[in-house]
Amino acid sequence: MTRKSTPHVVALCGSLRDESRTNVALESLLATARETGATTELVDLRSYELPSLHAVESEPPDADRLRATIADADSVALGTPNYHGSYAGSLKNALDYCRREEFAGTTVGLLEVAGGEFPGSAIDHLRTVSRTLHAWPLPTDVAVPNAHTTITDEGIADEAVAERVRQLGRDLVAYAGVATDSETIARGR
Predict the structure, then answer these.
(1) What region holds the NADPH-dependent FMN reductase-like domain (predicted)?
(2) What are the pLDDT tens digits along the chain (189 aa)?
(3) d(CA 180, CA 166)
């Protein structure tokens, strides 16, 4: 990955629901990233055919499409609903199709949407996965509590949460390519 003058931010949505609150939050994040000068893309896993990894003899073509999308990104937002204290199985399966080559050095922002009051555990799990994939997770993330009232059809109703989501969008643009930049600086170039 090399830093481009116009960063490309990809959001990977782990929710498969039609009325996904995770999707609403990621759309807000991407809108802010666009306003900050990035190109953006939302990966809606409902439009990808990704059976459970190794459930079929041959690799589905959508696995290559997903890997190419991630490899082309300067920053990736991983968004998930909280399911039983962790992240969505659909996101896990999609990430299983990716390799370290696609994520290595990529800036990653984490966003969790929870139905209850205490989100955060899914973010912890995604941070570990991001590090395993050699990505560069941002030190700040967004955990959205009480999604049924915090996020409506019109957007994020809680202004403090909305600002944290917007800030994550700005950070994904500002720190796009930071791992590559720091490696270049470390080598004295």
Answers:
(1) 8-148
(2) 445 589 999 999 999 998 899 999 999 999 999 999 999 999 999 999 998 887 777 788 899 999 999 999 999 999 999 999 999 999 999 999 999 999 999 999 999 999 888 777 999 999 999 999 999 999 999 999 999 999 998 899 999 999 999 999 999 999 998 887 545 434 444
(3) 24
